[in-house]
Amino acid sequence: MSKPVVVLNGPNLGRLGRREPQIYGTTTHADLAARLVEYGRGLGLDVEVRQTDSEERMIGWIHEAADERTPVVINPAAWSHYSIAIADALAQLEAPCIEVHISNIAAREELRHHSVVSAHVTGTITGLGLKGYEAALAWLATS
Ligand code: DQA
């Protein structure tokens, strides 16, 4: 039986492909989702990819993952830098959780250097583009 993993993408990531392509690339969110489902299948993972611009909805999804002990890959996008509510929700997870950033946040504007969620995740992958999500899935598959 394949292991469930949920990939949660935060605000503005639904606009991948059109949003600042010089930073985030030209792949759309739908294409990313299809690619991760396929990649996960090869690793024996049952991957579900979700995206929302609503903090309330994101917190609900994290609570669901906490209750079901589902491993999580999350790109909290801008919430990474200020949302104590998202950080508090992630602190409730018992299964592993990987924080992913497409861009190298340490090499960008100062306001992006700190992530308030990083202390509550298992590990963080930043700056590897969309391949960062695949690296997170590969790690989860062996954990
Ligand atoms: C991001 C980096 C954040 O600073 C930004 O707000 C995003 C995307 C990334 O994936 O590189 O929306 O999380």
Automatic annotation (TrEMBL):
Key word Amino-acid biosynthesis present: yes
Swiss-Prot/TrEMBL keywords: Amino-acid biosynthesis, Aromatic amino acid biosynthesis, Lyase
Active site, per annotation: Y24 (proton acceptor), H101 (proton donor)
Family statement drawn from the similarity comment of this UniProt entry: Belongs to the type-II 3-dehydroquinase family.
Function: Catalyzes a trans-dehydration via an enolate intermediate.
Membrane spanning residue stretches: none
InterPro entries in UniProt: DHquinase_II, DHquinase_II_CS, DHquinase_II_sf
Name listed for the protein in its UniProt record: 3-dehydroquinate dehydratase
This protein's pathway: Metabolic intermediate biosynthesis; chorismate biosynthesis; chorismate from D-erythrose 4-phosphate and phosphoenolpyruvate: step 3/7
CDD domains membership: DHQase_II
Annotated positions binding substrate: N75, H81, D88, I102, S103, R112
EC number: 4.2.1.10
Catalytic activity reported: 3-dehydroquinate = 3-dehydroshikimate + H2O
Site positions for Transition state stabilizer: R19
Molecular function terms, GO-annotated: 3-dehydroquinate dehydratase activity
Subunit structure: Homododecamer.
Name of the encoding gene: aroQ
